[in-house]
Amino acid sequence: MSWHRIAVDSIPPTPWRNGGGTTRELVVFPVREHWHWRMSVATIAQDGPFSVFEGVERWFAVLSGDGVRLSMGGNTHALRPDSPPLSFDGGVATQSELVGGPTEDFNLMVRQGRGHMERVHGSLALAVASGSAVALWSGEHAASATFEGATLELPPRTLAWRHLDMGGRVTLQATQGLWMEIAQ
């Protein structure tokens, strides 16, 4: 299977019901009504609650802005554009507080399987498992992924994803990228 590419700016933003921001849904797999996992870029425009997603593993990374504080289960997590992505239970009530204004954020939600997200600054080589879905977010600069001897070049603000029939090693190159893997 080849890589699927989605430029975030080609997706119109959908306003949140509570008026606190917008979401650009990049990919929903396999279908919107019964998704196993989804990836999106959201803009948080004001303080407020996150939507609750029972039975969902959530990953969250700040892409731009001064950052947010997420409060859940009695704990507060301060996240900035250079912070590692945060994994949390989507069923737990979560409150967001902006640090200095609106932020843009990347979200990975996994209902079936197990997700992982990490930042890519420079070059990174990883082993990937067969049967996984993998994705690379380029960030504000171009990025690339080399797998099975083929290199994928990504322009800025673009997501590429694919399923892997067999495992192997992937080499990533990005200035402000995100790497995701969903094990089935």
From TrEMBL:
InterPro entries: RmlC-like_jellyroll (IPR014710), RmlC_Cupin_sf (IPR011051), Uncharacterised_HutD/Ves (IPR010282). It comes from the Bacteria. It holds the Pfam family HutD. Signal peptide: none annotated. Gene3D superfamilies: Jelly Rolls (2.60.120.10). PANTHER family: PROTEIN VES. This is HutD family protein.
